[in-house]
Fold this protein.
Amino acid sequence: MFPRNQTTRSQGARRAMRDISNNTAGGDANAKNGQPNVSKTRNGALAVQRTVTLESRDDSAPVANANNNNPPPPPAAPALAPQAPVANNYMAPHDSANLSSYQYSGPPDDIDERDSDDPLCATSYVQDMYEHFRIKEPSTSVRPIYMEDQQYINERMRSILVDWLVEVHLKFKLVPETLYLTVNIIDRYLTKTEVSRPKLQLVGVTALLIASKYEEIYPPELRDLVYICDRAYSKVEILDMEEIILKKLEYQITIPSAHAFLVRYLKAAHADKKIVQLSCFILDGTLQSYNMLHYLPSQLAAAAVFIARRTVGRNAWSPTLLKYAQYTEEDVMKVARAVLAEKSDQSTELRAVNKKYTSSRYGSVATISISSSF
């Protein structure tokens, strides 16, 4: 159990989760009216496949207008479905003028060639794995409509819960995949079951337990989970909720998460440490947003890499990313605009991701001005 001087939450976050659990504060009727009475990796670092190189022919051309001070673009249109590869060009260009774009200007790299002798990289079938992920992701993703069926909670409460889980995840030093699986389990469970306000945090901490058992070598102990909830729930209640969630999800826990796609895209992007940290910062920020559920995990991962590359002054997209992500620059740009628009509208009380990436441990990338000139 954590000692008191290593508490997992700030006092503000502690009060926020108490208010979510308080069924009498303000009445449940306020939840649907948008007036809830609430305030608020082993390292979190990304385990990128093998080593990545900074320089590549993919980035030989300069980026145009990378530092313009244009106003932020409007939100994006609805998400586009994943597109199938097209022979030679990998993606069908939107029009003949786009053929002059840098993404079509050169041959893509074989990002698995240098790891072909390493059995841990599974280079002989890694591409087949990601093709399977692309087929499966629509069925394991959740669209942002389920709050219409929730009588006692709303999207703001979900955001505060995820913000708290980011802090807990960081304190326990869990791997990144655990956080993404936790949020996915919460959303999929809420699509199937109406949850009361006092039980929302119980669902969140139980989802973290399930995800930890799935992803971690040493998952958190039950007594620690009871402690981080200020003993609002007992061990028995957490175990009972674990059984309920697993049965409701029919024990379907395996998902192709946005983080899984990000690992692959960062390798295709020849990412350095700064791009890795920026991409993780941007992608983690999408977890708190209910509206980002409009987009598939692969789209959000591609948008995070797109924004990070532009921010550090490299080409936003490349022939190699076109091949392995199977999205064109134009398609990714629409999602990237939506991500940045949502980030700019995010409530100031959701501080966990910014606090995490302000630390020098993560390169202090939260203090970097994100490029929005596209």
